[in-house]
Write a structure and sequence with these properties.
Layout (H helix, E strand, L loop, with lengths): L36 H7 L3 H7 L25 H8 L18 H14 L3 E5 L2 H13 L4 E5 L4 H15 L2 E5 L4 H7 L5 E7 L11 H11 L2 E5 L16 E5 L13 E5 L1 H7 L6 H5 L5 H8 L5 H21 L4 E2 L9 H7 L9 E5 L3 H14 L4 E2 L9 E4 L10 H7 L5 E5 L6 H13 L18
Parallel strand pairs: 2-3, 2-4, 4-5, 5-6, 10-11
Antiparallel strand pairs: 1-7, 6-7, 8-9, 9-12, 11-12
Helix pairs in contact: 2-4, 4-11, 5-6, 14-16
Amino acid sequence: MAETIPSPAISYSKKRGPKEEEDGRVDDGWAAPLASKRDRSERGGDPTAALASARHEFGEHGGVNMSIEASATFTVMEADTMQRMFKGELGPDRDHYIYSRHFNPTVLNLSRQMAALEGTEAAYCTASGMSAISSVLIQLCGAGGHVVASRCLYGGTHALLSHFLPRACGIHTTFVDLHDMEAVRAAVREGKTKVLYAETMANPTLVVADVPRLSEVAREKGVKLVVDNTFAPMVVSPARLGADVVVHSVSKYISGGADVIAGVICGPESLLNSMMDLHNGTLMLLGPTMNAKVAFEISGRLPHLSLRMKEHCHRALVYATRMRKLGLKVIYPGLDDHPHHALLASITNPGYGFGGMLCLDMGTEERANELMHHLQNTTQFGLMAVSLGYYETLMSCSGSSTSSEMSPGERAQAGISPGLIRLSVGYSGTLEQRWSQFERALALRHPPPPPPQKQQPYLRL
């Protein structure tokens, strides 16, 4: 369908009751979708409080849950209303919708919630995490642009930056150690570099990005800092630390059910408006639209995201501590011997822990596979599967799975050893039950040869 869709300003407020406070804020019993600076200051930036301050959307008939608006297109009562909508005079801010690739009420409500969660002016929910990442990079860089990125990234993102964007858009990337600020500065190309790209916690090595310092470099060089916060929702709030744009694979912790694919872009209203532009917007023209039914599902899971994250993080810290005592090579930024422990402690939101991901380096892929086999098939500690954020523990050998898009040299440079097991720590069962399963699986590695059987005496007949 080749309809023409306008790009009105994204407004995160709807028509409300007549009561208005002296400072101009509307009061209808619910806080504004994005609270004022005064409100945010009073909350201290806590993502749980921010999420609770987003407007609660009721169902069509007064239900406590919002309705699912499954329509692809929307009707108007008067013909001139449609004309005004296509001119951009009427839009979602006044409950006027045209087509769900543009705006859908259910998806828009989730977008408001995600903006509140990450502390940004606006957000737009997409069909996948990769669609969110690619849409942002193409919009910000344009043809022939340049990116400076961490040398350790999720394999799909690395492939996007290394192979697809250079071929399709002429966008090239320089990969650097983001903790070497001089290397970061030196990699920026005057007039060409548009984006500095990082993951809050690198996938899979759990290198922690120094978001405050990176944001200073980004401002100094006039580029945008884009941070993938998929590993650390609630735990870290990159936008509050200076990031310009925050992206997520919502499929992971935010969903928590391993049953949907979704993404989100959180950032300035001006950026989201440009991405919805009729002629040049990546969101408008590439169409990575989230399904309204998916948005409804995810919206219902956000209220317990903080509880889930706290338990993920708590168990990860307990397991990592115990694994270290057993002499295993464990990588977890919550441990005091992790090189970025102090950094992460300084940027986390209080009370949420240090993340639910940990790594075990078994040295070789064979030893990693042997341990994972017993963890899944013998003791039922977890499941061999990619992805993360599920209530069951998920585990994979990163070098041959989620980082397989990288060459052996690139993996070595990123610190991904052949035997690195990435564990997304779940919260099902009791902690001690699961730990006992882990210990039993560990004991089954390379079992000692059976003792020689006692030879029966030779009987003569």
